[in-house]
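Sanity check. The docking grid for magnesium ion depends on where the pocket ends up, so I'm generating a full predicted complex first rather than guessing from homology. Inputs follow.
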Amino acid sequence: MGNNIVLDIAYVDKSFGGLQALSNINLQIEEGKTHAIIGPNGAGKSTLLNVCIGRIAPDRGTVTFNGELITGKQPHEINQAGVVRVFQTPEIFPELTVLENVMIPAFAKRDGSFKFNAFSLLSDETDIVADAEHVLDDMGLLGQSAHVAGSMSRGDKRRLELAMGLVQHPKLLLLDEPTAGMSRADTNATIDTLKRIKERGMTKVIIEHDMHVVFSLADKITVLAQGMIIAEGAPEEIRGNPKVQEAYLGESTDE
Amino acid sequence: MKMFKLSSKDMMLMLVLSAAVLTMPIWLVPFGAGYPDLMQKFAIFGLFAVGFNILFGLTGYLSFGHAAFLGVGSYTAIWSFKLLSMNVLPAVMLGTIVAGLFAVLIGYVSLRRTGIYFSILTLAFAQMCYNLAYSVLTPITNGETGLRVLRDDPRVLDNMFGVVQEGSPVGSLFGVNMQGYPGFYFCAVMLLIGFFISLLIFRSPFGMKLIAIKSNQNRMRYTGFNTRPYLLIAFVISGMYAGLSGTLMAVTDPLAGAERMQWTASGEVVLMTILGGMGTLTGPLFGAVLIKYFENIFSAFNESSLLEIFSFLPEPLQHFVVTIVHPFVGEGWHLTLGALFMIIVIFLPGGLVEGFGRLSKKFKSKPTQKSE
Ligand SMILES: Nc1ncnc2c1ncn2[C@@H]1O[C@H](COP(=O)(O)OP(=O)(O)O)[C@@H](O)[C@H]1O
Ligand SMILES: [Mg+2]
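Predicted complex below; grid placement will be based on this.
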């Protein structure tokens, strides 16, 4: 079995003051798979992603990406290595247009972490614009490309977030509740998009509350509660696991 | 390097601006501003503000110390006049480069912080330069007297090529003295070159990345950009514009004093940029011209000229009006500037450029309403 480990999270601890947000997390993400992380609010899911992209330094433990240690690296270095995060609360460039919001990450992908291209014209960047428009079209946002991003609806901002991640064609895409705040129709459209990139073989980690989304996308599920991994396995196993039912599924199906 | 294929709109802008700047000696006459000294100021401070805007307008980093680079440019230019040649070209080049080197140093340290801490660091550096110029560095700056060009300075290049000037030495461009109108035209050409470079930066991917840093720097980092070198380059470019402006001050009047580096001078360019429209292409230029114009008009009044203006009023009223107006003119013109600044910031937060935009919209929307 050629199950290549892309991301290896080993023995990660993180506490905020007295609160143990992550304790002894060990998690391996396999190449080409969609790995879901579920768990109740405050379980430490977002914190785990923050550790992966260098926003938060763990108290202990390491994160290795394709054999390369990424704990302690700068956020831009981790991005340039191919790990891209889609944020839970939209982190867009509100003053820029929708198109520009997607062009920026496309530049980062093409030019690297720094390039002094002050004497070339934006209007000559037809490849970048084409890339950005292609992704916007995929996300159904092409009609809004000239709009100021800050004025978009919340759901559209989420989709823009996703477009900004996808345009970089990452090796590993970390999605933090990509469908939260979306209508049913938008959620289904997003699932379709995510399924399509799965066919292209992109490795994904997805944090999600919506069980419909999780079970229709995930190859493997990890359940987190109070900073600890309480279960891990294929979707069918997780569905039947009583510990999970108690900690999480029970409460979320009531919603 | 390949030719820049500017959009036709930008080409028009460049043409109109060039025509407007170069014909200043004609169309400024009715405004009482058509004389070379003042027009030189328009061009020099316009350039200063255009460059400042590349840092402040694009990245949002507010420097309160850019006058330091103005001073460095001036001193360097005078030393070039003293040691090398009265030709302005070496002075301009050296002044810009040395100011750029200073900017690398100050920018490297100050950019370790953001927001108010960045502003305070730049302010501290500039005040340091100001104080050093009066104390330790007197051998270089000639302290309070100011640095001036003397008849018996070495001027190695001029001597080598046998260039001699009659009377007291003045900056010259191959025999043309850079005072009066020729001085203005030299500054005007520098302004246009500076504006053109700023236009290119605004229209480039680099410029867009700077704006994105202003919008959300953290996101830029997670998007894969190392933001520090971007900010440093913007800082150094704007420092070089300031240095060039300082050089031009020395070119048109071969004298440099430390007061050029005082914090009020740093503050003035901030006002110019905000007044005209921070982050807009043309705004800072308008802001600079407006402030220098008003400074010239309002600071020229004194009590007797005011009495004359209001002499049509009955005497008690005349004295009353003059008492009220007097604090706002002459030395007190900064009060007028302050009031003007407040009005603009409150009613037109986007500056003059926003005001123009609103006006032109009004004019444009009227005919379309009629046709409906
Ligand atoms: N930067 C932070 N500082 C302090 N506490 C934090 C920080 N980030 C997260 N936490 C706390 O850590 C716990 C886990 O948060 P989070 O990872 O956001 O949970 P989840 O994404 O699973 O809902 C929560 O109790 C949260 O309040
Ligand atoms: Mg979360």
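Relevant for the grid: The domain at 83-169 of chain A is CATH 3.40.50.300 (Rossmann fold).
Also worth noting: Chain A has a mean pLDDT of 90.
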